[in-house]
């Protein structure tokens, strides 16, 4: 029977290659026509966006290399959506350790290895080892500690997780409860989980993979609590992988997505670790129990790894949205629905304004975030250089910028993937589209590494403080420097007199800046209401106004994002046609941001109704102007079919045959009658079985 089904599947797939779509245009022809009418070369723009021809060539080479392996072949990748948690967990680790092997043998550089993992899009239990365990030792361990731990970690003789979050607290880091009590007699720390709420809960790779972790615990010496400090802690035996005495560790169970990764729990019953397990680059405990705190400017050093990851998340967001929009734009350009008369050529669904108005602004957001990601990682690299030279002056600005931008970018990408999925109609709901898994795996980013509301409030705190500084005549530097001119700004009115005026960069920048300034001034006023002239960042004025404060922080981050996008396009080395298209995309981005929260511009009379109508009109015109370039704009992201792993987003547009082939080849179709026939359906449906059952009664 199995054989029979396989034969029929092959026949069906072969047959489908002969089939034409009655009354339709062949999808491949649609995509070919789209590419022909583009106003610029997507190959050339892809080179600019990706940072050079060499990067694209290297990526193709890595994909070929992946395809030649059993764990990274196209077949392995496309089967993934049919696999169980356990299978995904093992597959993730197989891929990560194989890539590690290639890196150790010198066949891959560190960058190649990272890129290979990104291309594979199969998260595994070693991700946190690479992105948080090793970096925390690098940045928070002293030289001797680095020399001891790093070679073992890099050789994968030990694997680590980042154990900060507890059952009771993720956001309120200062409220974490795990204790590290110093025992002077033995020169050891005793790590203990004092309550149910103190159990470590969520760390990636902790459940089944990690032998060690970075343990964030309150340092207690002579009953004095010195707050949170990082420790390197072994939790499993290196020979047996069994938990050490006093350690209870396991996986926290299935999640919304990202199920190959073993996010874990960890409960500790007075487990002893040596004094030198505390990472001592910034704070120290001597053998006789003297505590040397970090310097004042290093006070937030323990939070350093989180800042690094937030920079990575900002960098990743644009590329994830680029994947989703590539799938949705290509598919909606071949998908045809509805003609006036049956049998006539139907419209490509991307030509309906509702879809263009959903997808084209998301393409603009993906471009904006890609440029912002580059700017953020450049900024983070500069900070690293300064930090290594002992200068931490730029950390406060970096923190507030990345906090708000992490929130804006991950919200935009997560909501954007879901909008793309819906935009693809029924086929978007199929796992074969690649969109459900992309969303389920990605949406965690709005929560982890600082919940987005909480991160926005960190930026809000900075904006209110900046507004306060301006009010007191002090200078404000950095991304909030525009607040310096708040008083003049608040008297300005929108200058638009014709729809075309909205297209100009100055008008859009001015409106976004006005909105951010107005909201910051209002936020500041709200917080001064009951404090007798003093702002309390934890009191009822703050807690009762967080909706407004988060909105204010997001308006600021949108301004930073938009101006960075515009500047980056201005500075990029682009051919004139691509530049012209991107300038329109920048305008669409700014207009879409304004339209989303138009009420803000009416609040203080900055905007008049006729100007708002012109904004809508100009946005609608822009959608039409950009429509011919839609496919070229997503082709320019340069994302390979291998990485898209989507029947809908494939670059040749052969969507329907791909769907049929993938569906008919899956496990549930392995037999014609299906796995429930014999035990469940047959006794009801097969007349002979029914007869037999009755005769037994
Ligand atoms: C692959 C990824 C997998 C996932 C992994 C994870 O999720 S791991 C788990 C990830 N978990 C999370 O992400 C947890 C999220 N929670 C947190 O990060 C913190 O609890 C907090 C930032 C919300 C508050 O912290 P708090 O109560 O200690 O601070 P406060 O609000 O009282 O402000 C006091 C001052 O500190 C400043 N400042 C703050 N942070 C930083 C910084 N990093 N740097 C520099 N400065 C910083 C702030 O600007 C303010 O300055 P001001 O105005 O006085 O000049
Ligand atoms: C997939 C995944 C992987 C993770 N990996 C790790 C890891 O490797 N290591 C690790 O240590 N942790 C990890 N975490 C934990 C993660 O960092 C936390 O979940 C995150 O910081 C949010 O904290 P919380 O869960 O306590 O949410 P809560 O703080 O309980 O949030 C609940 C709600 O309250 C709101 N809220 C909370 N505090 C405030 C406030 N002060 N002001 C306004 N609103 C507030 C939030 O906006 C949210 O809506 C991971 C989480 C996930 C989902």
TrEMBL record:
Give the family per the record: Belongs to the acyl-CoA oxidase family.
Instruction: Supply one GO BP term.
Output: lipid homeostasis
Cellular compartments per GO CC: peroxisome
**Protein residues bound to FAD:** 165, 204
Q: Where in the cell is it found?
A: Peroxisome
Look up the record and name the cofactor or cofactors this protein needs. FAD
Active-site residues (renumbered):
449 (proton acceptor)
> Where does the Acyl-coenzyme A oxidase N-terminal domain lie?
42-158
Q: Specify the domain of life of the species encoding this protein.
A: Eukaryota
Query: Taking every annotated instance into account, which residue ranges of this chain make up the domain Acyl-CoA oxidase C-terminal?
Result: 506-685
- Name of the protein: Acyl-coenzyme A oxidase
The Acyl-CoA oxidase C-alpha1 domain sits at 303-464
